[in-house]
Amino acid sequence: xxxxxxxxxxxxxxxxxxxxxxxxxxxxxxxxxxxxxxxxxxxxxxxxxxxxxxxxxxxxxxxxxxxxxxxxxxxxxxxxxxxxxxxxxxxxxxxxxxxxxxxxxxxxxxxxxxxxxxxxxxxxxxxxxxxxxxxxxxxxxxxxxxxxxxxxxxxxxxxxxxxxxxxxxxxxxxxxxxxxxxxxxxxxxxxxxxxxxxxxxxxxxxxxxxxxxxxxxxxxxxxxxxxxxxxxxxxxxxxxxxxxxxxxxxxxxxxxxxxxxxxxxxxxxxxxxxxxxxxxxxxxxxxxxxxxxxxxxxxxxxxxxxxxxxx
Length: 311
Fold this sequence. Notes:
Layout (H helix, E strand, L loop, with lengths): L29 H12 L2 H6 L2 H16 L4 E5 L1 H18 L6 E5 L17 H10 L7 E5 L6 H13 L2 E5 L13 E3 L15 H20 L3 E2 L2 E2 L7 H15 L3 H10 L4 H10 L3 H10 L4 H5 L9
């Protein structure tokens, strides 16, 4: 007979509780419903802010692992899994990352992105199989996403991550969840009961998206993918990116558009290389070496050129 402590019943979870503000929601006018949802959503930012220290710690871990050649892997079921896949899929076009750097997995596979796969979230062994398929290793970070904090698929994933030496991070919207027993670091924005009881695609889903935005954006900034608030880790691989790259080279170097286009062409379309080559008056290869010396960070690579009064 098993003597393991029982997991909390689902009806004991904060995210499953009845929200007193919406008990008469079906009697409200359309405008009243909109205002009620908006007022409830206004609580989300504070819940995420309360987890700032944990989110910052996670960003530092992820940045360190990615610098050493590791990956960030999101895994979840249902809404949580879809949000992880979404955030992962947006990194390559936003930050020019290779597709394998940030990976999103969802219980039930890609077909679960469009329709629910019954029972997929209840199989912890399938998570092990899915992670083995991408060869999760000790260089990687795994972020397990589960609003309830008790999804077997996600807990199985976090346990496997710990077993192989990957860094397991949990993201949940309920305190003191079973996930906390297997994650090395927990991020737990407590958003409270949903207006529609248990519909965690609402506040919990929004809080999850906000946290994931912070994790990848913060990491990419730390990795040197931006200069100020400009996306500078670009390779001009299509007409839209070429136009953006020319504009940014011109903005950052003072060259006119024609000169910027020529300099970019000489640097194989690499924006950061072009900026360093122009501002430091060096060859493309020397510019690449400078960027490598400064860990891909554009600001220190051009710092000795900048006038003292330029930020």
